[in-house]
Amino acid sequence: MQPITRRRFLTGLAAIGLASRVPPLFARGGGEPITRPIPSSGEALPVIGMGTWRTFNVGTDPVLLDERARILEVFFDQGGSVVDSSPMYGSAEAVMGQLTERLDRYDDLFAATKVWTSDGDATREAVGQSEDLWGVEHFDLMQIHNLLAWQEHLEALKAMRDEGRVRYIGITTSHGRRHGELERIMENEPLDFVQLTYNIVDREAEERLLPLALERGIAVIANRPYQGGRLFGRFQSEPLPDWADEVGAKNWAEFFLKFVVSHPAMTCAIPATTQVEHMRENMGALYGILPDQEQRQRMVDYVEAL
Which of 20, 52, 210, 211 could pair covalently with 85 via S-S, beta carbons 3.0-4.6 A apart? Predict the structure, then answer.
C-alpha cells in the first residue's frame, strides 16, 4: 500500500467534495492552508505557489544551489506545492530537478512549466526535454509560454492530455500583453489553466479575463504578484494600514498576496524570491483569513492614496 502523502490527501478530498481547506494534519505554517479547487477536476491547490524566473537560474554554483535548496525546503515545509518554470528561464528547470531530487520532495510537487519554441511541430520534443530536466515522468501542468505558436502547440497538448502525458494544459501571458487574443482563446478552447499578470496595481484582468475564467471554469495563476518586486520599492517604506490584521496581513508581502488570491477567480499566485526570509513571508499568505470584496476595495484605495 502506498503511503498517504499530502498531495494524494488533497486530491482525495477534492474527489469527495471537501476540498476548500485541509485539516491541521498537514498545516505546517499555523492553522490550515488556504486552497482552491482546479475547476476542471476539483483537485485542490494551495493558493500560494512559487515562480522561478531569474531566481532559480543559478547554474551549478554550489553556494547558490544550497541557498535555493533552503528556499525550496521552506516552501514545501510551509505547505507549498505549485512550482512554475519555463525553458526560457535559463537553468531554472534543471535546478528544480536537481533540488527536488536532493530534498526528496517529488511527492509534494505540483510541477508546472511551459512550451517555449516557435516551432509548432516540436511540442512533444520540448515537453520531453523539460521532463528530463525536472526528473518527472509527466508534468502536472504544461502551458504555452506567452502564446508562442499557440495554435500548433495547443493541438499537440490536447492530444497529450488525452493520452495522459500531461494532467492539465494552459496558456500564459505576462505584463498585461495580448489580453484580447487570450480572451478569444479562453472563449473557444478547452483550457484547464491560464496564467496572467495580476496584482494590486495591475488589475486590467478584472475587466474581462477573470470573469471569463469563472464563467468557463478555467483555473488562474497570477504571475508578477509583486510587479517584479516594484511594489516593495514603492510601498515598503510606508506603514501598513492599522486595519491590516482585519484582512489577515502582518506585512506587505501578505497584504499584496492576499489581495491577489482573494479574487474569486484566482487559483494560485506564484511569487519568486532568492531569500529564505522572504519565502517565509510569502507562505504566511497561505494561512489565516482572506479579505472580502469590500475589504479588497479598501486595500486598493489605501495603496492608491499613498
Answer: 52
